[in-house]
Specification:
The chain has a single domain, classed as Arc Repressor Mutant, subunit A. Helices cover about 45% and strands about 25% of the residues. It contains three helices and three strands; from the N terminus they run βααββα. Strands 1-3-2 form a three-stranded antiparallel beta sheet.
């Protein structure tokens, strides 16, 4: 699953891809953001998430 956040993806898109609720994705993203593994940007009502270079380095 490392490829999930190579490109920006929305919360709902990630929830559908992982077969979990948007709330579950949001909670996991919050943990990843706190660890500086994911960055988030908002475009209107949509929120997009993408891996950071730090996450890329860990994935090798």
């Amino acid at each position: 699953m490392p490829a999930l956040l190579e490109a920006p993806r929305g919360t709902a898109d990630l929830a559908a891809a992982l077969a979990v609720t948007a709330g579950a994705v949001s909670q996991h993203i919050a943990v990843l953001r706190a660890a500086r593994l994911v960055t988030t940007r908002r475009e209107g009502r949509h929120v997009f998430h993408v891996r950071t270079t730090r996450a890329d380095a860990l994935l090798g």
